[in-house]
């Protein structure tokens, strides 16, 4: 099975990793799906940073003793 630490290679995948994936019957469609989901997650993260989206859901407010 391919080493998941290769995902840190900034979008580059080597022939060795691709062959290893193909050896365990990963299809081209599955590889494309992973790439698409990765791109969507990155785009979503950038949008949330730009929009200053709250990271708590539901928004948590600190409790104050009155």
Automatic annotation (TrEMBL):
It comes from the Bacteria. InterPro entries: AhpD-like (IPR029032). This is Alkylhydroperoxidase.
